[in-house]
Amino acid sequence: MSNRTMEGWIDERGQPVIPVQLERLEDSVVALIDTGFNREFIIFEEHARQAQLMIESDTQIVALADGSQKRFLKSGGTIEWLGEQRRVNIFIIPGSMPRHGRWQVGTQLLRDCRLEIDFRERSVRLSH
């Protein structure tokens, strides 16, 4: 990974994913690139607690792509993003990450980026 590029792949479910490093977590976690999510970042509560994020007491209702609404916890944190430390708004899904669960990167993080997805080569490249 160069400073201004992030490399990902197409996972076993045919979804574009990239590894993301959240402050205070030892390992990066694979995140789904979700162009249907127009905020910055979604993680699960277990990871927010491991990263010692300050979870706000208020929750926010967010409309999902399927028209349903879901209640999220909120926080802020720092991720490694395109070679830089970036402060982001984080929506937190209460509870533990399910077996096929993924963190999600939304379009607010992608807006100044070039996203290349090659399904044939099963590769993902994100750059400035």
Secondary structure category: mainly beta
SSE succession: EEEEHEEEEHEE
Overall shape: it is: globular
Computed over alpha carbons, the radius of gyration is: 14 Å
What percent of residues are in strands? over 45%
The domain tally reads: 1
Query: Class in CATH?
Result: Mainly Beta
- Can you summarize the main beta sheet? 6 strands, mixed, barrel
Could you say what the CATH topology is called?
Cathepsin D, subunit A, domain 1
Calculate the mean pLDDT score and round it. 90
| Number of beta-strand segments | 10
Structure description:
The protein is mainly beta and 128 residues long. It has one domain (5-127): Beta Barrel (Cathepsin D, subunit A, domain 1). Helices cover 8% and strands 49% of the residues. The protein is built from 2 helices and 10 strands. The chain has helices at 45-50, 107-110, and strands at residues 5-10, 16-22, 29-33, 41-44, 59-63, 69-81, 84-93, 103-105, 114-118, 123-127. The chain has a 6-stranded mixed β-barrel with strand order 2-3-8-4-7-6. A hairpin with a 2-residue loop joins strand 6 (69-81) and strand 7 (84-93). The longest helix is centred in the middle third of the chain and has 6 residues, at 45-50.
Features of the shown structure:
128 residues, mainly beta, Cathepsin D, subunit A, domain 1, six-stranded mixed β-barrel, 2 helices
